[in-house]
Design a protein that fits this description.
Layout: E1 6-11, H1 18-31, E2 40-45, H2 51-57, E3 63-67, H3 84-90, E4 94-97, H4 100-104, H5 110-122, E5 126-131, H6 135-139, H7 143-154, E6 166-170, H8 185-203, E7 212-215, H9 223-227, E8 234-237, H10 244-264
Parallel strand pairs: 1-2, 1-8, 2-3, 3-4, 4-5, 5-6, 6-7, 7-8
Helix pairs in contact: 1-2, 1-10, 5-7, 7-8
The structure holds 1,3-dihydroxyacetonephosphate.
């Protein structure tokens, strides 16, 4: 398949224990076995407790595994936190940082997230930085300012060798979860363009190659259109991905849609 690499991932949040995660992964791996990771990168971010079994359960390296959070320190008096060394020992590749639920339920700030991003990159992980404005910020007309602040603080002082190891997920907070309203395709397109130009401001030409994923109520009725938008390189999916065969169908349909775009451009 020619054109840009596409990314499809899911965050399992605080759902699925060890057994359910393993059976989900085995099914997803089987269903997607023909997808070439050179063109389509799949990833799953399960609970911490599922990670060791999740890693053992995958037979190929096509689906990458990630952790939902990480401490910025390697060790110390940080009760309840998980160190980058512990995650590296497990052999996972992605660290998700700054998810809206971490920011808004658990009070993570841009400064905390920036420390984690730096540690994650220095520890050799791929970092998936999540950003997004709240409904209030949208109503106040400051969505763009919020996104720029989250990017500029979140990526402040990152090591220069981040290339190929940084992904951004744009997830408007008001679009996430059972009470979320999916963003319109036009809205998502606008914000992805703003994010792209901000990344180029921060990282120069390397900003053009940082994959941007859209998340927040992605579902089979909006995924094909979303993936068609110029700066949308992938989809970060919650509920619509938690059944392996539904996720497989959504991914295949989006790939098909993206291939048509490349055919006509
Ligand atoms: P939903 O797709 O369920 O809205 O969740 C999106 C999300 O939070 C992915 O991290």
């Amino acid at each position: 398949m020619p054109g840009k690499k596409l990314y499809f991932g899911t965050n399992l949040k605080m759902y699925k224990g060890i057994r359910e995660t393993v059976s989900y992964l085995c099914e997803l791996e089987q269903l997607t076995a023909d997808m070439d990771p050179e063109n389509v990168q799949l990833f799953v971010i399960p609970s911490y407790t599922s990670l060791p079994d999740a890693i053992r359960s995958l037979r190929h390296k096509q689906i990458l595994l990630g952790a939902q959070n990480m401490c910025w320190e390697e060790q110390g008096q940080f009760t309840g936190e998980i160190s980058p060394l512990m995650l590296r020992e497990l052999g996972i590749s992605i660290i998700e940082l700054g998810h809206s639920e971490r920011r808004h339920i658990f009070g993570e700030t841009n400064v905390m997230i920036n420390r984690k991003v730096i540690t994650g990159l220095k520890s050799g992980f791929t970092v998936l930085l999540c950003i997004g404005e709240t409904e209030e910020e949208k109503n106040w007309g400051i969505s763009d300012e919020t996104l720029r602040i989250q990017l500029k603080t979140g990526l402040n002082n990152i090591p220069p060798d981040f290339n190929g190891r940084l992904l951004i997920a744009y997830e408007p907070v008001w679009a996430i979860g059972v009470n979320g309203q999916p963003a319109s395709v036009e809205y998502a397109r606008d914000k992805h363009e703003l994010i792209r130009s901000t990344l180029c401001e921060i990282a120069g030409s390397a900003g053009k190659d940082i994959p941007l994923l859209y998340g927040g109520s992605v579902n089979p009725s909006n995924s094909d259109e979303l993936i068609l938008q110029p700066e949308v390189d992938g989809l970060f999916v919650g509920r619509s991905a938690w059944n392996a065969s539904d996720f497989n169908a959504l991914i295949r349909s989006a790939i098909h849609s993206a291939a048509r775009k490349q055919h006509y451009t």
